[in-house]
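hi! just following up on the protien thing from before. the input was this:
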Amino acid sequence: MNSNPLKIGVLIGSTRAGRFADTVADWFVSEAGRRDDMEIHVIDLAEPALVEELKLSFERSGDRPGDVPGLAQRIGGLDGFVVVTPEYNHGYPASLKLAIDYVHAEWRAKPVGFVSYGGMAGGQRAVEQLRQVFAELHAVTLRDTVGFHMAWEKFDEQGRPRDESGAAKAADVLLDQLAWWGLTLREGRAARPYAG
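and the predicted 3d structure came back as:
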């Protein structure tokens, strides 16, 4: 058992009713949960407290609901991220953009991977746009992604990919890259605080 696992946030970017994100995210979290070098923390933008917090940020009131840890605090306590995103109209969800922009320094010098899903493009157009956004925030995006083309056809009734071995292999590649970058950047931030 790893005594100092990386704290990895799985950020679920869709907030739509009837979303397919739950199926994709649940599968990925189960894959990531098999590792002993990572501690997985799910951040679902559809959580009522986060919906309210982001709504208030959009309205510029600045008040955070209750005593629930805020999004920036949750992001700041993590070593890396995997964003689960659909592709909407060749882009990513507005809820995800709002959440990313709401947090600032907490993203810096941390790795970000992507699990995408959608129609024929499998969410890859959303991922390419997200790479540009995270580069501006001084985050490091991972090369390899996990993508599901025509996603609703790729999962069975139990929420498992029909090509389970192929999907698991893609997830392993992403998680291995995330582990390397997560550890390297965590050690780098501890040795020399990032000044970007």
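The chain has seven helices and six strands.
The chain has one domain: 6-189.
cheers
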